[in-house]
Design brief:
4 helices, four-stranded antiparallel sheet, alpha+beta, 136 residues, binds iron/sulfur cluster, Alpha-Beta Plaits, 8 strands
Length: 136
């Protein structure tokens, strides 16, 4: 069984399609919606954790792409500016997903572990130096 995270972006036209239902019924995938942003008339986004057969995950995502759903990696939605980091470690203390990687004194003292991040933005909220930027 494979587990994969992806951000799905829907055009206003694609937003009415039952994409999560299709992934479950047609591809037998298990879905965990980690984050969602859906507003009438705007592009909608879902951060999904998909688990199931590796081939089925690939087929399901290919099918969604054919429905005009864009599929991106989580990393596409954040940036980390280490030049601003003062090593307060506040991000590490609040992260609910064990997604902050600290390397004190190094060139890259803080980073986000993409496979764990749920784009909650708590690190951005507590950082005193503006290290984190999110676009979800
Ligand atoms: S966005 Fe949330 S889950 Fe991701 S690194 Fe920041 S605090 Fe952790």
């Amino acid at each position: 069984m494979k587990i994969e995270r992806a951000v799905l972006s829907f055009s206003p036209n694609a937003i009415r399609k039952p994409v999560t239902y299709l992934l479950v019924s047609n591809y037998k995938l298990r879905l965990n919606i980690l984050r969602a942003k859906v507003m009438p008339g705007e592009e909608g986004r879902l951060l999904l954790e998909l688990s199931g057969d590796e081939d089925k995950i690939r087929e399901g995502l290919t099918y969604l792409a054919s429905l005009d759903v864009r599929i991106d990696r989580v990393q596409s939605f954040y940036s980390v500016d280490c030049t601003k980091c003062t090593e307060s470690k506040k991000c590490f203390q609040v992260c609910p997903a064990d997604a902050i990687d600290l390397n004190p004194g190094s060139e890259r003292p803080v980073d986000i572990i993409e496979d764990n991040c749920i784009l909650c933005e708590k690190c951005r909220e507590v950082c005193p130096s503006g290290v984190f930027t999110f676009t979800f």
